[in-house]
Specification:
Blueprint lengths: L1 H44 L5
Length: 50
């Protein structure tokens, strides 16, 4: 029984690590999109394209 428990713990730890990496990637994408939108807003608000 102990080996099954250890295996489940190892799988759970690997799953948590993978999910954490996915979460970080999503956060970076969201912040990148916000920065790009802010730059576009600055360009439009200063009237470069007028």
């Amino acid at each position: 029984m102990s080996s099954n428990k250890d295996l489940r713990r190892a799988k759970h730890a690997a799953y948590e690590k993978k999910e954490e990496e996915k979460g970080k990637k999503v956060v970076y994408i969201i912040f990148g999109a916000l920065i790009i939108l802010a730059i576009i807003f600055m360009i439009v608000s200063f009237g470069i394209f007028d």
